[in-house]
Design goal:
Layout (H helix, E strand, L loop, with lengths): L12 H13 L4 H17 L4 H6 L5 H10 L4 E2 H7 L2 H6 L3 E4 L2 E4 L2 E6 L5 E6 L20 H9 L5 E7 L5 H6 L3 E8 L2 H13 L6 E4 L11 E6 L23 H9 L4 E16 L4 H9 L5 E10 L1 H11 L8 H14 L2 E12 L8 E5 L12 H13 L2 H5 L2 E4 L3 E6 L9 E6 L6 E4 L1 H9 L1 E5 H11 L4 H17 L3 E3 L2
Keywords: Methyltransferase, S-adenosyl-L-methionine, Transferase
GO biological process, one term: methylation
Family: Belongs to the eukaryotic/archaeal PrmC-related family.
Amino acid sequence: MGPVPESLRPFPRRLADRLRRILIDADYTVSGVRDRLGGTAARALAREQLIPALRATGGEEGLGLLLRLWWLQEPISEKSARALLPVDELAEHGLLAAADGDVRALVHLGPWELEEGRPGYVVSDPTVRPGQGVPRPDHVVGAGGASATLSKLIVDGPFERALDLGTGCGVQALHLASRAAEVVGTDLNPRALRMAEISCALSGVEGAAMREGSLFDPVEGERFGLIVSNPPFVITPDPARYTYRESDMGGDALCAELVRRAPDHLTDGGWCQLLGNWLHVDGEDWRDRVGGWVAGTGCSGWVVQRDVQDPAEYVELWLRDSCEHGSPEYTRRYDAWLDYFEREGVEGVGFGWICLRNDGAQDAAVRVEELRHEIEQPVGPYLPGVVDGAMTAHRLTDAALLSTHVALAPGVVEERIGVPGAPDPQRIVLRQENGLHRAAQVGTVEAALAGVCDGTMPVGPLLDAIAQLIEQDPAKVREDAPDVLRSLIAEGFFRVAR
């Protein structure tokens, strides 16, 4: 798709409603596409192989035609297209082109599932596949795995105002619309803003305001109850070549800058949630690096590392993303990228999320951890409880903890591992069957406390009773228990009842 024509501003509501009805009536939805393609074709598409999907979408019925046109980017006959779609109007607004008896798509239009199963639609540039050249510098990438990760991370509303920083194709703005009365999307790429507007129109989202500019510049002086961002966090030695993935800031400075500036744009108690990359540098703990970004912001929060790639893996990932594998530039760029990481002492690149809550508290604390295993999705509904638990544990002195009423969190079970028939287990593990699915090895005291605490008695007297039962010194048990219990509260195995 070339420069966005003026006619795309705005996309007519009447046309958006008409196209939306056509898409839904044909079952061009997430479930409809999944069922029509089937597992074999879907897996082949993930490998950039189109033939199984083309075989699965043959024929002249609506869903197959829409899939070939919008999803697979294959031309369909003009006769078939006109029987199904308002071709002339969509061509006028830059979504289709008709020539030589065929109609082809100028954009990718894909279904996206919103809250409560509502159908949404996302408009972006067509996917550039191997052998088709490289993306244009202002390429607007569609919704993918990172988009899904962030959408499932967003906390529940309601909020008065929400901001999608770096909106791209607008996918997060669609999710914000169900949480906030007012939604603002920003991007420095005007083509992205126009496509985000169309995504909102086709998804039945009204009133989302799209503003052009970098970072927080378009919303200077404004505050929001919720800010989300899937920013251009890719770490590269080159000046930004693609606006959707790279910035002009070196290293992981972009994510650090977003964290630094976010509190100035949050209401009291407001949330900022973003995805990011951060460097693993020789001689430095990544937790200290990212935790340092948050220190002094007055925000409590949660930083989670979900994956780490070594330098070569990281370079290969993003060279594949820009379809440069096998190109004359591939070796040169690969070499230069590794040279850069070597000079900077980079041993790996982490990927994950940063969630901040503007508590405005001097003792605000952020929990920084790594979670590589599968966790319950979506995260958003229980995320505030994760931050609350970490903050509560951080604020509890030993004395306060002993006088606190705690209860075992819902969904926590106990596992005892040992030799069959032995009087005592070798290990006792508390495991969460929901939420973050954490596991924690505990001692006899903590296991006994988990079995009896129900929020009706303070921790201190319960520990005294447990000490007598296991024939240990109560004073020693009271002295040793708080540090372990504080960690178990922070990780969600116990909750403070009052």
